[in-house]
Amino acid sequence: MEEKRSYVGIDISQDRLDLAVHGRHEVRSFANTATGIKHIVRFVMNLGPVLVVMEATGGYEISLAAALGDAGIPAAIVNPRQARNYARSTGKLAKTDAIDARILAAFAAAVRPEPRTLADVQTLELREILARRSELSEMITAEKNRLHHARGLVRDHIVAHLAWLTKSLAEMESELGRFIKESPLWREEDNLLKSVPGIGFVTASTLIASLPELGKLDRRQIAALVGVAPFNRDSGKMRGRRSCWGGRAHVRTALYMPAVVATRFNPVIKRLYQRLLAAGKLKKVAITACMRKLLTIVNAMIKHHTTWHYVPEQAVIS
Fold first, then answer.
1. Which CATH superfamily is domain 6-111 in?
2. pLDDT band (50, 70, 90) for residue 314
3. Angle between helices 184-194 and 152-182 (to 10 degrees)
4. Cβ(262)–Cβ(287) under 8 Å?
5. From CA 152, how far away is CA 108, in angstroms rounded?
6. What is the pTM of this model?
7. Beta strand pairing status for 27-31 and 75-78?
8. Which of 121, 191, 193, 307 is an S-S bond match for 204, by CB 3.0 to 4.6 Å?
């Protein structure tokens, strides 16, 4: 018999957190501060078995998610569109913070979204370093593009800025490497991932920071989570073209270039890519399939704690 569980919805804004428990009319409000989050964690833990649902809010949910993760409280962060569509389906069109909290609690009870592993404070800091490294890299590219058309004082200013950006990028990469080496788990995963032809330092770091489910899900689940699994579009006699959508765009971005490199230097991926092209598949479709294959391989490697090893005509991990 399934254990009785409380379902909690939390509406998040910059300054406030509104909490509702399914089946209760009362909505509690807490400040979106360290103290307010501590009060929420204590309140939720007193409810016993619980599932907490909150919306992705572009960053305001991060501290709360980390605190819930550290406390071992099952939680799911859902797309705001899912919750809003659920509200419309039940005829609730009004929108306030309190109503949204109740809707999220009802959504949790009705849909029961799968709780995901929430990042702890250390993982969040790793993600911030990785994001800052990406920002610096983009700024360097932009400044180099401007340099082609700059003259005089503006050119000198861009050159000086490029020097500063390059130094900052090196510092971020050094800090990223240090962070990963200080964690035995991350260090092991980093070594396993980088043993695969096509996967380098940045891709390995992105997978460690942004895909904690790696090795914990099966190949279909991990592909759907990242957004490289094709979904059917059929209705009646109509058979639509299968396509990939949703998932974690930043992880797909990190996998794209490794997959391209792997089509040349990774024997397993290269053979798959050539077979798909020979079958008449578009290059974009073939690359996406290679991304999924690469993800499947590293998922199995992390699950079984094994490094990459290739035997002609057969890829194995040992």
1. Ribonuclease H-like superfamily/Ribonuclease H (3.30.420.10)
2. very low
3. 110
4. no
5. 60
6. 0.69
7. unpaired
8. 193
